[in-house]
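Narrative progress, year one. The postdoctoral researcher (J.K.) led the effort to move from monomer predictions toward full complexes, under supervision of the PI. The following entry was the first complex the group processed end to end, covering 586 residues in total.
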Amino acid sequence: MQSGTPTYTRNIDQVNAQERVTKLFSRSIKKESKIVALNTVLSMIDLTTLEGKDSQGKVKQLCYKAAHLHDQFSNLPNVAAICVYPPMVPVAKKALNGTGINVASVATAFPSGMTSLDTKLEEVKTVVAAGADEVDMVISRGKFLQGEYDWVSDEIAKVKEACGEAHLKVILESGELVTLDNVRLASDLAMAAGADFIKTSTGKVSPAATPSVVLIMLEAIRDFYKQTGKKIGMKPAGGVSKAKLAVQYLVMVRETLGQDWLSPDLFRFGASSLANDVIMQIVKQSTGVYQSTNYFSID
Amino acid sequence: MNKRINIQKTYKLYIDGKFPRTESARYIKWQDSKETTLVNVCRSSRKDFRNAVVAARNAVNGWSSRTAYNRGQILYRIAEILEGRREQFMAELTLQGSAKKQAEKEIDQSVDRLIYYSGWADKYIQIFSRVNPVAMPYFNFSYPEATGVVAATAPEESSLLGLVSIIAPIIVGGNTLVILASESRPLCSITFAEVLHTSDVPGGVMNILTGYRSELLEHFSSHMDVNAILYCGSDPEEIRLVESNSALNVKRPVVYPDQDWSKEKAQGPYHIMKTQEIKTIWHPIGV
């Protein structure tokens, strides 16, 4: 194994990836393990609201929810972070003061990324100055698909520089990259350019996080770790709304990357309605009774 | 040459407008009394029930907001399709032990019962609504609305007429339904699902499971997302279970003791009201 520049892989076996996903997803997690898994999922959630209609009230409500998932159950963990649009960062920062929950902000002209580099860097600096602990950037998919990989890589590196202390998550928007080969290449580029996390999607494009895309990205992280010794985090986002699927992803992470990655420091779920479903499953496990959304907070 | 290979039907469940096998992969062997036919009937698990409730919950808004007239049309359509499937039901009812004449009568009555409730679709609300005199400047009125998701166990003895007599008043009132078919006579119920499937009934409005009542009743009655439970039978233990579990989320318990479903009193608008809630509106008016 040589260190230094990582080698890029572009020969993904799609059928094999599908098979591996099917195999990993068929594993059954029961009883105590299931409860541990569900609690772990909760602690990994980036509770997200990314809509044009987001108001201060909506963000405050979400922040309250982040710190009070289901008060009837006192020992539930908090979610990892709140993910909002840049103008909402100060609101979220204030609302989450003292809770230990991070504020993540999308930036770089989310979700399309279609603006000048200067504007993007300015936006990143603004959100970091406003107190964002984590920045979720989008890559320029147009440039990537045109083959201008160096341009894409440089852009990520500059955004990373602008982030300073803040963690950088790089959104590949796999739904627009079309092939698994592209996903793998974009993952390698992003990690080499300084990403702390790689993230599947914005949630605005369909398909969002698909299991095979997540697997390919996890494998990219594994290979990068073997080559450089650096642990990069992973965040599937969009389309993960059921507890069952989230637990299946944990299995995939455990089997691909090992125990170290089963932590909010290295694995996150970007989701808005996942938390409630997970809590409903936890309550089901403890009461034995199937639950109704009527008795939980509104997403 | 030899005679043809016998093609037998696979009896599956009916959930969300689809015919899945049970997720548990279990089955119950069902045989007619003359041992001519052997059928593997799905033995539903609590997870099948859970999936059915999710489907029923998703279907509530769409179904209850259809016009009463349209729900009546769809019920009439079910009757039409049932009429056309007469032969298949005849065969299954006789396999299940009915005499030919008896089976004939049961199908006739089932079709008639659907037509009967189809007629009530846009009438029961007038009958059971009222304007209430109040000593304040309000126009005050009450009318019935669908309860929501109903879980039901079908009558054990009457596998077609009993099933229809339970289903029709529940759905004509805008509810959605998960029903457990007769344990000893399950064949008609799944064939009836095929009738529903071709009758413009939206997926999820009616979901039919087969399996053991003793295994599933606990979950039928305790599920927090079920708004009413309808139990057919006379077992005091089971009735107690249904009624005490209903208290968990204050679901409406309805009990139908074993009875002859061919009788006149087995139908009527009051059966619709068993799964309706009364909404009262205080509408301000000028003095």
